[in-house]
Batch of 2 targets.
Target 1
Amino acid sequence: MKRHGTIGVNERGHLEIGGCDAVELVREFGSPLYVIDEDLVRQNCRAYHQAFIEGIPGGEVAYASKAFCNLAMARLVIQEDLGIDVVSAGELYTALSAGADPGRIDFNGNNKTPDELRYALESRVGRFIADNFTEIQALDEMAGSLGLRPKVLLRVQPGIEAHTHEYIQTGKIDSKFGLSIATGQAMEALTLMSKKENLDLVGIHCHIGSQIFEVDAFAQAARIMASFMSYARDSLGFPLPELNLGGGFGIYYNQNDSPAPVRDFAQAMYAALRDEMGKLSFPLPRRISIEPGRSIIGNAGTTLYTVGSIKTIPRVRTYIAVDGGMTDNPRPALYQAKYEMALANKMLAANQIVASVAGPCCETGDMLIWDAAMPWVETGDILAVFSTGAYNYSMASNYNRLLKPAAVLVAEGKARLILRRENFADLVRNDLMPEHLLWNQGKQWQKLTLPEGEAELTLPEGKAGSALPEGEAELALPEGEARVE
Ligand code: LLP
């Protein structure tokens, strides 16, 4: 197990993160619990700031908020002086609510709805990354109707196949993202954009995939983009001043992963650009952006679970079931992602068994870790899974009506709640009871409330509020959770 950031072991032999005892964290906040190491997030932001913003003329970094998006995270990124990349109105709303400068927000995505385009335009986001012809048309019309002329980059496919899981690859020709240089569609789109009155065409964008370790893949993408910029200048008759090279920098999840330092990526990308632009006698872009997500938050997250059932199938396998799984971390099920773990309350104990960690969902694939060496495990132990900061909370679901975990931000011995644990009222908050279901044995139910005003089940207009005649039967709900008034 690799110790990222402030991870350590305290004198009680317990896992410690940000100076907080992990076992105490579970006692206080419950489990599963996402624990976010504030120092490491800041350190990662600073590494990008130094390498790209201070290290490259015109360099800009926008945190890809899809990796972990909430008010506190957005705020940290803003405090560390990075921009924010959003892909939906929801992410945009979160970034703006956290106080982001709209001018440093990039709006990505392959199917921005008319409502999203309008919201982003009215919010004055800094740049739109247009993905396809439909969007170019829609954005031009919407911008015109609002009397605006936004800066726009075109997402192009450089045709690079980086070594990563197929579902996470985004730079190849057969992809739903962007327009291909090779097919000529990218140039066609740029020509079209350059003629649109309400679009300020400033550059091109690419993203070659995610969890990529090869520094060369990024350098190669930079070269292809540079030469395409030069070709585009010749076709358009004017140079495009901005280049966005996306995100995708790989992180350590397990022993097979060996990520290069951020500055290596920065230097390789910049050197490739300079070299290629030099050969083509083309000026370096005025703005060179990247959009890292995972590499800013991934290693800063640890998920704590409580061990429940333990089942040993003789000569086959031991299953250690914990109180979370694919609902808070779908990555093993989706991408066969492999994580490292430890028993937070037994950090000094020697490994004794090999076992697999399972979640509680009704799915055979609901596994967190296969065949890991660990100390003797007992029900009630606290199991920590590392490097769960990216794409865990953001892809969490309520499958089996499990509650989404809480998250705490830890630093210098203090834990601050940044995401409240969901409760049962949250689960039924958006549930509606259609009128015809209110009837039971010919009698009409009227108002259903949850205890202590936690949440109210919305009923059709005119039906709520009036009391039931005495002696009416009760609607069966989990004990103590709800009642009929
Ligand atoms: N920019 C664009 C246009 C992207 O599509 C992505 C990620 C990023 C930036 C940030 O990439 P990062 O630096 O985080 O690798 N759910 C998958 C990852 C999907 C990534 C999608 N796009 C996973 O859990 O591995």
Note: The chain has three domains: 8-36+300-422, 69-292, 429-485.
Target 2
Amino acid sequence: MLSYRHAFHAGNHADVLKHVVFIQLMRYLAQKDAPYMVIDTHAGAGVYALASKEATKNAEFESGIARLWQRKDLPDPVADYVGVVRALNPDGKLRFYPGSPYCANQVLRPEDRLRLFELHPSDGRILAENFRKLEEQEGRGGARGKRVLIQQGDGFLGLKALLPPPSRRGLVLIDPPYEVKEDYRRVKDTLEDAVKRFATGIYAVWYPMLQRMESREMPNRLKRVPANGWLDVRLTVAAPAPDAFGGLRSSGMFILNPPWTLEPMLRELMPWLVAALGQDAQASFTLESGQTVTGQAIRREP
Ligand code: SAM
């Protein structure tokens, strides 16, 4: 089943959380000169026009990036993220939203590598076309072509062949649609396999907070994947919707092997993000981190 199109959701509060964290993880890896690889297992279309019929259907970007666009008091990580969005909108009007592949392309250095998987044939084509246009605009031609590889196919499976990356430094973003409950299981299985192949990689998983059992249980399951540590951050912008059509109100980013800098950064940032994106009195965040010892999740006290 391939009905999910990210164009309907681009730039919403969940994308803000995901892309702020994603960009900061890349900034962390870029602190060392040694190159690193970013693998995006569920890349989407790469760039989204916010005037499209998909994006305007529920105008989800109004709950996310649009609330930050005019603000002058952005904390550094949010300013960094909004800067990436501004690079796509040089005239200052918010018309386009960058998906994770564009965010990565903006942040990576020439020596770093980007590997993108997208299963949906239409989004795969749009993604390839977006990168072709980027190459043209930026004039990097062949160099860019070598740096970024796009594959139309299953990212859960494709990841296996890429681990460990030759540089032994890498970040994997796993961001499935979760329309089918299989996705929850595949995320966990994929992480378990990936850490065996590349134990020191940083793995970032986005997930929705929904009523369904698989969603509520997933973070606790991921905490048991053997690794050096985990961090789980959740942003809730409003009370749960009364029905299935009320839209997503809460989502999380689960990081395996998080850099030590991430938790203090998020502890400072999240109250600001709750105030900026919150829609009612139930807007809140949670932030937990811990270590995994022989299959048991040990929570670290803040
Ligand atoms: N990561 C993107 C971003 O942040 O801009 C958004 C990705 S969207 C949430 C999920 C994407 O995964 C959709 O474009 C969908 O077509 C694609 N997809 C679904 N199953 C997949 C699979 N097994 N492998 C690769 N892509 C898949």
Note: The radius of gyration is 18 Å.
